[in-house]
Amino acid sequence: MKSQIALKLSTLTCGVRRSNRAFVLALALGAATMVAAPVFAQSTKIGFVSTEKILRDSKPAKAAQAKIEAEFKSRDAQLQTLANNLRAQAQKLDKDAPVLSESERVKRQRQLSDLDSTLQRKRREFQEDFNRRRNEEFSSIVEKADAAIKKIAQTQGYDLIIQDAVTVSPRVDITDQVMKALGG
């Protein structure tokens, strides 16, 4: 009987120790949370910039686009002339085909095919040159925009500025400020 009482006391003591450990652990976690809470309570200032809007609507972007279009206007006109020439020759071949000899018809078809290949090659070259030139111009705008964003972040105390998000509150959108810093 005495050993049963000792066993019960021993079991009770172990239970108290376990609950004390749990209590001490809960107390420690609570204290750690209270210490860390002020760190999380400090507000983080977040901003958003729409790169697409800057590259579409800013004054430097519009000026760059106009400059590029002016540079490539004559080449575009040449391509249009070449395309119109090809179309006219194809229509003439369709019209004259019934009265042409087989050899003449094959000769004209080959000429049309060569002209079409030349047109396609020139269009590809034009598009590649246009894209390369556009990327050159816009990369300088992006560099200037990045510098403006960094300056705004430093002067206004932003912790994080995000570009291109799925959804954005107008409250954090600083795109107009960046465009203003770029000169429009």
From TrEMBL:
Keyword Acyltransferase attached: no
Pfam families in the record: OmpH
CC annotations in GO: cytosol
Keyword Hydrolase: no
A GO BP entry: protein stabilization
Keywords recorded for this protein, A-Z: Signal
InterPro entries membership: Chaperone_Skp, Skp_dom_sf
Entry's transmembrane regions: none
GO molecular function: unfolded protein binding
Secretion signal, residue range per the UniProt entry: 1-41
Gene3D superfamilies assigned to the protein according to its UniProt record, in alphabetical order: Skp domain
Family: Belongs to the skp family.
The name this protein goes by in its record: Periplasmic chaperone for outer membrane proteins Skp
